[in-house]
Amino acid sequence: MSTTAEPGLRLANPGPGLVTLDPVHTALFRGLDQLLTGLAARLAAPEVLGPPLLAADGLAKLDYFRNFPHLGVSAGRFTPETHADLAAGQAPAGQPLEPTGHLLPSATCYGLLLSLEGQDVGDGARLSAVGRCFRNETHYDGLRRLWGFHMREVLYLGTHQGAADHLDQGARFITATAERLGLELTRAAADDPFYDKGGSRAKLMKLDPVKHEFSAPDGTAIASVNRHRNFFGERLGIRAGEHGPAHSACVAFGLERWVHAMKLAHGSAEAALDVLHTATRA
Questions:
Q1: Whole-prediction pTM value?
Q2: Quick one: 197 exposed, middle or buried, by C-beta within 10 A (0-12, 13-18, 19+)?
Q3: Structural domain boundaries of the chain?
Q4: 3-74+104-281 sits in which CATH class?
């Protein structure tokens, strides 16, 4: 996407999987995010800001590398030996990097969950956050599949029933919001487990799916409801008082994908923005 920001000024994409949103697309992005925060307000989930990096050791506790070895984008830094050459103007390409032991987030909830390690959430707690996420993909496709994108999540930790109620309210919010915006979405079970694919939990998921996606007519998944059971509670020692290891669940929105879905439904970013303004005034 390369679009006009002002007369004579064009914003080109920096590279594969990377986009710069022009003022109209940015207004649509911001307006959609503001509308989608309505779920957090409805569920009394306070807004927080997650960490920009995640410790690899922490992610390993969550079977992240067993399940998603291809997605991780690691954070490296130039070694001290390269600083003089770089300061002298040498090209950074080919200069050695040393690992930091951290990765860029691939989902917003990971940072929130890791921040709650060892805590007791009592009968239940909720958090809402939006974060920039990064994923290595086999290919990139406009706003549908990006290397870096924004994900808003509303996370719940607490009881089994509380997690189920959280997802039920999230699914109803997604459906109602899509109707307000003139979006036709289909709901279907997804198959990307958050635990070891060979384990008994993964086999159970085939019988009782833990993730459902809401997709636009072209197949782009723009939102999901995710039931983690007590997996993260057990792995991170997060308790729900007398209920034992906390059950967790999250409702996730891919913001750039919502922009894509709006353009797909209404023909252009300008038309989509008009629809959004009408929907939010109603």
A1: 0.90
A2: middle
A3: 3-74+104-281
A4: alpha beta
